[in-house]
Amino acid sequence: VSATERITRILSSLRSFTRLDESSYQRVDLHEGLEAALTLLEHDLKDRIRIDKQYGDLPEVACYPGELNQAFMNILLNAAEAIEDAGTVTIRTFEEDGHVHILISDTGIGISREQLATIFVPNFTRDGARVKAGMGLFTVYNIIQKHQGYIDVDSVVGEGTTFSIRLPV
Question: Could you tell me if 101 and 164 are in contact, meaning their C-beta atoms sit under 8 angstroms apart?
């Protein structure tokens, strides 16, 4: 019964995440996309990462929801991977001056100043014996730009990282 409920929840989140059954450009509740991404990442978060949701009241935003959901998923996955043992990912949302703000923070290893300078540039990284394309944050940056939004990152090595996204209402 528990496994069936989990599968049902994951399938529902997948449908919400991809928005395959809806038109491509529409007004949506961004919290639904964040929740869908979190559900799909449950396995990666396991019991070691606490999620602190500080959701404010947000208006619906006109966007390509599948693309924004992909951006949320990439940032949340990076946050989870940056936390070596146990830690917290905080998601804070609010509206201000005609924009919605989504802040995703982690208590992970942080990013050096040198790496911050090129964080949205595609690159290749070596992870053990695998070579990764390093396109995740480049893709996130382009998705946010496509939505006339802004993304910034602040990080302290050894303390964590915060990605700040601002999108027009």
Answer: yes
Q: Could you give the count of Cα atoms lying within 13 Å of 18 in the half-sphere of its Cβ?
A: 8
CA distance 25 to 21: 12
CB 104 within 8 A of CB 76: yes
Any idea which residue has 């043992």 for tokens?
85
Residue pair 29/112 in contact (Cβ under 8 Å)? The answer is no
Percent of the chain with pLDDT over 90: 60
To the nearest 10°, the Cα dihedral for 118, 123, 126, 127?
Answer: 80
- Amino acid letter for position 115: Q
pTM of the model: 0.83
